[in-house]
Design goal:
126 residues; alpha/beta; Ribose 5-phosphate Isomerase B, Chain: A; five-stranded parallel beta sheet; 5 helices
């Protein structure tokens, strides 16, 4: 079962979306950014999903500090919400552990991120 930390401004909404759509394949937690990032670093949690106003600051900044820039991915930015196909390609193109996105993109971005992570873990081709 994949373990996900939901952080940032829309952490509760993120958890609700994941639990409703992927509850049979995921376990979700809501913790402060620093605690969540440390859990990912220690291997207790698989992935960190953090929302903020810009997508690349705020919540993801903590993950960058703890996990390193190469383990973090800005999925959406202000004025740029990628399609599900684009998000899937981003997920498959790297081995990131933390994902940042704009709070107002939560409903679109979160299901696409989690679906791609699950499919990738299950060996389903991009």
């Amino acid at each position: 079962m994949m373990k996900l930390e939901c952080c940032g401004l829309s952490s509760t909404q993120t958890k609700q979306i994941i639990d409703a759509k992927f509850g049979d394949k995921t376990e979700t937690l809501v913790d402060p950014d620093m605690i969540a990032a440390r859990k990912v670093k220690n291997g207790e949690i698989d992935y960190y999903l953090g929302s903020c106003m810009t997508g690349g600051g705020g919540s993801l900044a903590t993950a960058i500090m703890v996990l390193g820039y190469s383990n973090c991915l800005v999925v959406s930015k202000q004025g740029n919400c990628p399609s599900e196909k684009e998000i899937r390609h981003m997920i498959y193109s790297g081995n990131h552990k933390a994902f940042g996105y704009v709070k107002t993109h939560t409903d679109i971005v979160v299901p696409a991120i989690v679906k791609a992570l699950i499919d990738k873990a299950e060996g389903i081709a991009e």
